Amino acid sequence: MTNHTDLESLFNPKTIAMIGASPTPGKWGYFILLNMLKAGFNGQIFPVNPKAESILGFKCYPAVSEIPESVDLAIITIPSALVSPVIDECAACSIRNIVLVTSNFSESGEEGAALEDEIVAKAEKYGIRIVGPNTMGIFSSDSRLHALMPTLMPLHGSISMFSQSGNVGVQMMDYGLHENLGFSKFVSSGNEAQITCVDYLKYFAEDEATKVIMGYVEGFDLDTDLLEVTKEITLKKPVVFLKGGKSEIGTKAAASHSGSLAGSAAINHAVFRQAGIVEAMTSLELIDFAKSFANSPLPAGNRVGIITRGGGWGVLTADACEQSGLVVPPLPETLIREIDKILPEYWNRGNPIDLVATIMNDPLPACLKMLVEWDGVDAVIVLGAGLQNFSYHYADDLEGPPQLIETIKFIKEYREAGSGKLDPNLVLIADLVKQTGKPIISVSMGSQYSHKEFMKTYSILSFPTPERAVGSLQKLAEYSQYLTKNGVLTG
Fold first, then answer.
1. How many CB atoms lie within 10 A of CB 344?
2. What is the CATH number of domain 297-485?
């Protein structure tokens, strides 16, 4: 197995040979080179193509041996039948890292599998590390390395991901653009003929830039040290997995797609739980859970306070909490008496705290502060913090009672204040998270994207629905319990 410490020069090379670089738009050898150019790779790039003098402004070289500098990484996009002799050429030039984008290996049948075995045997003999084959490439924010097939430019952040499906992996990075989820490193692991998911896990575990590890897996060998390795890693960093190939049809698809053996869903679930892996059941959950671990502290327990502008959303949130094993405790009399001073006398006097559709903003921050500071809850979900995101359409010359005119004026000003500026409620949430160390999740019922830059800057955790907020909070609580059970966290 590859020494994971060797992967530093893979993810942060100083020189790259692009073998199979193409001047033809639409070919992978063109797109990958274009992506590296657009991303502003920190090092040098040497396209290799004997039929071209230059591509995208880069001087081309007829062979790897003609490159005047030592090369840290070779990216190969040539047809599979031509790969084996190129491995020899790379070895002769002391290249020790290869990203083999080329497909038509073990995922295509016996002939392809034999060819894959041949290049792996050569790589092992030469001390070369191969990503793939059948990979969509790698990404590293540290070195601005964007050696990926799609033209997507992901956000930079603290998530590192390996994916046994290139398409699933790059789509997660695309989702990240909309969910304020930034990536430190990404690798499409392909067929994992040599470097496996275990190697990437080990590297990400030691990488200081990685805060959360994501993985999409279709299959793995339970005889490997995956379980023991991940047990150690999850005591340091959260690991979030989405497992493909859980059904009979999915298992067959995984075998033909990436050459993986998918295995029993029940066994995989048990393995994940034992290893402390946070399991996502859907692609949306994979993004939600990773975003939560990257942007929220862990709760000390499973008690949740809920505050809502409208009663119905509070009911739905409380239902979701109970179904997820989270506790919604009743409010103590001392807290009720304090809130009595703020809310109308007909408020519900319970948890969830219903602001009874109070249109003015003043009650929300005051009640939120008291709820978060109450030692009877470990986390808070606040629904409807972004009042300015609702659409109000009133004529500027509207006439009516002074109180109505003042209310409408407030609404319009509040909306305008939230357009490209700091929302006071979200500022308060960010401050309270820092002061108390408790997770506070904002549920904006579809409007959190209007706060995208603010969320990114202040690491506010926000979802458009209460169900997604509760599902993510449940995983935060479960992981906190796992760390406590293993002595990492103490009361």
1. 11
2. 3.40.50.261
Whether the CA torsion 297, 272, 474, 484 is positive or negative: it is negative
| HSE-CB of 485 using CA atoms within 13 angstroms | 11
**Contact present, 479 and 238 (Cβ < 8 Å):** yes
Band (pLDDT 50/70/90 cuts) for residue 266 is confident
Q: What is the DSSP string of 378-406?
A: SEEEEE---GGGS-----TT----HHHHH
pLDDT given at position 265 = 72
Answer yes or no: same fold for 1-145 and 297-485: yes
Domain boundaries, the chain: 1-145, 154-295, 297-485
Give 124-176 pLDDT, tens digit per residue: 999 999 999 999 999 999 999 999 999 999 999 999 999 999 999 999 999 99
This prediction has a pTM of 0.88
Which of 448, 459, 182 minimizes the C-alpha distance to 295?
A: 459
> Residue 129: phi, psi to the nearest 5?
-105, 130
Give per-residue burial for 237-263: e unless 16+ CB within 10 Å, then b: bbbbbbbbbbeeebbebbbebbbbebb
* Dist. CA 426–CA 82, nearest whole Å: 56
Give pLDDT, residue 347: 94
Give the DSSP H/E element, type plus range, for residue 317. helix 311-323
3-state DSSP assignment of residue 153: coil
User: Angle 164-7-174 (CA atoms, 0-180°, nearest 5)?
Assistant: 45
Name the CATH superfamily, with its identifier, for domain 154-295: Succinyl-CoA synthetase domains (3.40.50.261)
Yes or no: say if 325 and 474 are a contact pair by the CB < 8 Å rule.
yes
Question: pLDDT (tens digit, 9 = 90+) per residue, 68-117?
Answer: 999 999 999 999 999 999 999 999 999 999 999 999 999 999 999 999 99
Length of the chain counted residue by residue: 491
The rounded distance, in Å, linking the Cα atoms of 270 and 268 is 5
Q: Which CATH class is domain 1-145?
A: alpha beta
* 299-309 pLDDT, tens digit each: 999 999 999 98
Under 8 Å between Cβ of 414 and 386: no
Identify the CA nearest to 275 among candidates 211, 206, 318, 222. Answer: 222
Handedness of CA 257, 262, 266, 267 (dihedral sign): negative
Rg (CA), the chain: 26
User: Which residue shows structure tokens 């409620």?
Assistant: 425
Asked if 404 contacts 384 with a C-beta cutoff of 8 angstroms, the reply is no
What letter represents residue 331's amino acid?
Answer: L
The answer to whether 194 and 124 have CB atoms below 8 angstroms apart is: yes
Q: Where are the beta strands (DSSP E) in 294-418?
A: 304-308, 353-354, 379-383
- The DSSP secondary-structure symbol of 106 reads G
